[in-house]
Specification:
single chain; alpha+beta; 25 helices; globular
């Protein structure tokens, strides 16, 4: 059982007693059903769970949400059954899980982006839900599912619909768009709770709602905090968050706030890139000049942790593998720098690229309703950023359904397990990019992933949205949500809570209501976000249309930490499990030349899997409560 923050949800019935008895010694906190039976058990920080009661009904908001218990009780007054819960929660802002206990029935769900995720498993004959997979793995004695671990070599997190597969046997990940209904006898079923909006709005039409949603999302995190920190990379995404935070923290009424109270502190953190041509830090400095009440922290380049530093003997606090391991030293330094300045909550711009970028897949949708305009746009895009036109035009004629595309991806992966040769980048107008396994993956690992893809195709899953452009944006947003969730698990034990306002449900809905073709293209850079931030972010900063590039940081980190990387794979747990060829991996790492795209793309997921598996096998958090690791 982990020593980190977690919670579990139990049914309101006598059959849940054994599961409750197993959890009680591990839980510092318990919240009961109206019946007196345990409902929520776990460990969570003060102020992160708000509960309301009305008769036999209970409603809990778990996470970052400014709602008070009194206001939540007013919402609960109209709840007669689990089906009324979403109406009661309408308009709540922030990032949170929502749980209800009504008339002996339980309903619980996370967030649409996956930042707040939910898992469930059978414990002593009843369904138990939890926000961490390893909580349930420890209760059930579950081991690692080698097939799903192989999937994390392909991509971590895996792409939709494989992102709902759990790396722990017997533990099920609830899809973000579903809630879980648990009856009094402990039996459970999933039900849909969220659908993306139809993307009908232009950028100008959608900007006001997006502006309001972003103000509310950041405001949900600033209420009552003495200090708050933010990333300030110099890019539009983090710059917007910083200015939103500064506006939310500014006193609006001296009498209401109390003239004697100190102004909440805002700390902005900028890491400089190693490439002199990277102008992110310069733009960050310009932004900071417009934030006179913020402390701008810019560590010298000589003080900045290298990528891939600190790998030896590292603890892995995440419940699943992830590519964050590359940035482990920088994350630890961020926590030290920000907590020393009083911050306990750190905001990031994650998710904005996924929501405010026009993925090329939208061309496949547009060409069917506006063929001439779409072809003209494609030509203009080709002149702005040269694309190989013939593959794109051929892709526009593709009429495969989502499940057929998945099956074809599996077939291509089986025939060509290694990444295709390099060349000019080809924009993807299919349902998604057909990722390839790393060149060091064993045939057994490739077969495992091919099998999972074929099983997914046979289940005939629906895409996340009818149009490819909207589906692609939402799939990428979910992947970003799962990565942010892991950053939260990494930083929280270091005393710093990480949060991404762009991935709140309200912001997600406002952004996805804008037509994909309006989110960019034709040389426009994030026009929806720029329109929404007009008047909040200075116009001189909104005119930036570049983005920093960090290949110099990556290659420097690889070169200087190559001995540690090689040592890590000398006694590879993945190799022992038959999933990677350690000799092939070391050969790529020791190449005299700069690593190719195949190495750079596959290294981070592989590194994440290797360190995670080592920590599990070595008695790390997930196994210390008794969950075995199947590998020697």
């Amino acid at each position: 059982m982990t020593g980190e923050a977690w919670f579990a949800v139990l049914a309101d019935g006598e059959r849940s007693r054994p599961a409750a008895q197993a959890l009680r010694p591990l839980a510092a906190r318990t919240i009961e059903h109206a019946s007196g039976r345990p409902w929520l058990l776990g460990n969570w920080p003060d102020g992160r769970v708000t509960v309301a009661a009305a008769g036999a009904a209970r409603l809990a908001v778990i996470g970052l949400c400014p709602v008070t218990a009194g206001a939540l009780a007013e919402r609960l007054a109209g709840v007669r059954g689990p089906e009324d819960v979403e109406a009661a929660a309408a308009g709540l802002t922030g990032s949170f899980h929502l749980a209800a206990s009504v008339g002996g029935r339980v309903r619980v769900r996370g967030s649409a982006s996956g930042v707040r995720r939910l898992f469930h498993a059978e414990v002593a004959g009843v369904t138990v839900a939890a926000d961490r997979a390893d909580t349930l793995a420890a209760l059930t004695g579950a081991g690692v599912d080698e097939r799903v671990l192989a999937l994390h070599l392909l991509s971590s997190p895996p792409p939709y619909p494989l992102d709902t597969l759990c790396v722990w046997r017997g533990v099920t990940a609830l899809p973000p768009q579903d809630c879980l209904l648990i009856e009094g006898d402990g039996q459970a079923r999933a039900r849909h709770w969220w659908d993306p909006p139809e993307p009908w709005l232009t950028a100008a039409e959608g900007a006001p709602a997006l502006r309001s949603a972003l103000i509310a999302a950041v405001g949900a995190r600033t209420a009552g905090v003495p200090a708050l920190s933010c990333d300030l990379s110099g890019g539009l995404d983090s710059t917007s968050v910083c200015f939103l935070a500064a506006a939310a923290l500014a006193p609006t009424d001296a009498r209401a706030r109390g003239a004697h109270l100190p102004r909440p502190r805002l700390v902005a953190l900028t890491w400089e890139g190693r490439d002199p041509a990277n102008d992110d830090a310069a733009w960050a400095g310009r932004a900071a000049a417009h934030l006179p009440h913020a402390e701008h922290v810019v560590p010298r380049r000589t003080q900045q942790p290298l990528w891939y530093a600190g790998l030896a003997g590292m603890e892995v606090p995440t419940d699943e593998p992830g590519p964050w391991v590359r940035d482990r030293a920088a994350l630890a330094a961020t926590a030290r720098l920000m907590t020393r300045r009083g911050s306990r909550l750190h905001l990031t711009g994650a998710g904005a690229d996924e929501l405010f970028t026009a993925f090329p897949a939208h061309l496949h949708d547009d060409v069917r309703v506006r063929p001439l305009a779409t072809l003209a746009r494609l030509y203009r895009q080709h002149t702005h950023q040269p694309w190989p036109l013939w593959p794109v035009l051929r892709g526009l004629t593709d009429r495969r359904d989502f499940d057929r595309w998945l099956a074809d991806w599996a077939g291509g992966l089986a025939r060509r397990p290694s990444p295709p040769p390099g060349g000019r980048p080809r924009p993807c107008v299919a349902w998604g990019e057909e990722l390839r396994m790393p060149v060091w993956a064993t045939p057994e690992a490739v077969r495992a992933v091919v099998g999972l893809l074929r099983e997914a195709a046979d289940a005939r899953p629906l895409p996340l949205a009818a149009g490819r452009g909207q589906h692609t944006a939402l799939a990428h947003a979910r992947a970003s949500g799962l990565r942010v969730r892991q950053l939260q698990q990494v930083l929280a034990p270091l005393g710093l809570e990480c949060s991404a306002p762009y991935l709140d449900d309200g912001v997600l809905e406002a952004a996805l209501a804008v037509r994909p073709d309006e989110r960019g293209g034709d040389g426009r850079y994030k026009p929806v976000l720029k329109e929404a931030m007009a008047g909040i972010v200075p116009g001189s900063l909104l005119r930036r249309d570049t983005k920093g590039e960090y290949s110099a940081d990556l290659l420097t980190g690889l070169r200087r930490n190559r001995p540690a990387l090689l040592a890590l794979f000398e006694d590879s747990r993945l190799a022992g499990a038959g999933l990677v060829d350690a000799d092939a991996l070391r050969s790529r790492l020791t190449s005299l030349h700069a690593p190719g795209p195949d190495v750079l793309r596959g290294l981070d997921p592989t590194l994440g899997c290797e360190t995670w598996l080592r920590d599990r096998a070595g008695g790390g958090p997930a196994t210390s409560g008794g969950a075995p690791c199947p590998f020697p």
